[in-house]
Amino acid sequence: MAYDRYNAICRPLHYGTIMGSRACVKMAAAAWASGFLTAVLHTANTFSIPLCQGNVVDQFFCEVPQILKLSCSNSYLREAGLLVVTACLMFGCFVFIVLSYVQIFSAVLRIPSEQGRHKAFSMCLPHLAVVSLFVSTAFFAYLKPPSISSPALDVALTVLYSVVPPTVNPLIYSMRNKELKDALRKVISWTFFGSGKITFALHN
User: Fold this and answer.
1) Which helix (H) or strand (E) holds 47?
2) Which of 97, 98, 132, 193 is the most buried (most CB within 10 A)?
3) Which of 88, 94, 84, 86 is nearest to 135 (CA)?
4) Is 87 exposed, middle or buried (0-12, 13-18, 19+ CB in 10 A)?
5) PROSITE patterns given for it (predicted)?
6) What are phi and psi for residue 181, nearest 5 degrees?
7) What is the pTM of this model?
8) Closest-CA residue to 3 (of 89, 114, 131, 113)
């Protein structure tokens, strides 16, 4: 998304050539393949770790840090190393996103029209906010010191990075679509006003 916005704002005349269907397929395939590979590596490692402290995790899914808490003393080092490598890759992606947005914002600030600047910022800031929330909470959840860990904090952090971004993303990107806005307005109007009319008619 950052690369898409970079090309749309900084290289608008070349956008159609750079962001063609083939480029989009390649980027989507790379994202899915890297996510699948990471998941397979973590799953294989965690399944091979012997558990010495029971098999109940204080979480709503089998999160890796919670499984490591149940592992034997030295058996978790391989998975911990894999977590560090994954964190470094995530940080590299985040740096790439930040550098892209630095160039985007420098280009936006040079737009003479205030309306054009507002439109560009409204297109970029929601994506940057969601990515920042995901990366910061995931980093803190996986790399925080054990001394400040608690079940309530762990669950809150997990919800922030695993539930909130996927839930908010469709809303952020679809609410700029006029047809979807109109459809949502009609649904809300029918829900709050249409149902009241039906109830009133039934009572009469």
Assistant:
1) helix 21-47
2) 97
3) 94
4) middle
5) G_PROTEIN_RECEP_F1_2 (PS50262)
6) -60, -45
7) 0.63
8) 131
